[in-house]
Specification:
201 residues, alpha/beta, Rossmann fold, globular
């Protein structure tokens, strides 16, 4: 007999602040190598990606439009609007950006690809992979080097919901990591790799 599924749906989060489970970024840092071990999350929220990078032995910093910590951690490099930033705080960019119906992800990814010299790794809903406009526009210009399909599914609830003492779990949406190699290694002729990435080991 199947167990009843404990699924959650949430209202739109303030400032699109959704928090991916740590196992999503922990899994990424197990499979992706970073030649210069300096990671920047320009939409860091409560810092799950930064903390996963540090735990993996990488140097990592974060910034965000708002400081969401009761006590500001040493790795937090200030309240910054990523889209107005022209000088990167890290060689590689790894982030869960505000979704904005997909438009926010594309806008932030384009900016990261413009200013960051190293890898760009973006956490996104799997539906971000699809759509004619993106296929003929964004992905035609910037095809990702790799797509990692996350399994088992991770949850990405609103940050405020977690602040109220709730626990992540029971998410109903699928997510992926999109990875672009550094600009000097990017090839428009090379096909995008599609891989499974297990978030639990």
């Amino acid at each position: 007999m199947k167990k009843p599924k404990q699924a959650h749906t949430w209202d739109r989060a303030n400032r699109e602040w959704y928090v991916e489970e740590r196992r999503a970024s922990e899994a990424l840092f197990r499979v992706e190598e970073f030649e210069v071990n300096s990671i920047w999350d320009g939409c860091c929220g409560q810092g799950n990606i930064v903390l996963s990078a540090i735990a993996a032995g990488l140097n990592a910093v974060g910034s965000d439009i708002e400081d969401r910590h009761p006590v500001t951690p040493a790795w937090f490099h200030g309240e910054r609007n990523f889209l107005t930033k022209r000088e990167p705080l890290g060689f590689n960019f790894v982030s869960n950006p505000p979704f904005g119906g997909g438009e926010g992800i594309e806008l932030i990814t384009r900016h990261a690809l413009d200013i960051v010299p190293g890898k760009v790794c973006i956490f996104a809903p799997s539906k971000f992979l699809f759509g004619d406009a993106r296929a003929l526009g964004f992905y035609d210009e910037f095809p990702p080097s790799r797509v990692w399909l996350l399994t088992p599914r991770v949850s990405c609830p609103p940050g405020e919901w977690l602040r109220e003492g709730n626990k992540a779990g029971g998410g109903t949406e699928d997510f992926v990591w999109l990875v672009w190699e550094p600009r000097d290694q990017m090839s428009l002729s090379r096909p995008t790799e599609l891989n499974w990435l297990r978030t639990k080991i």
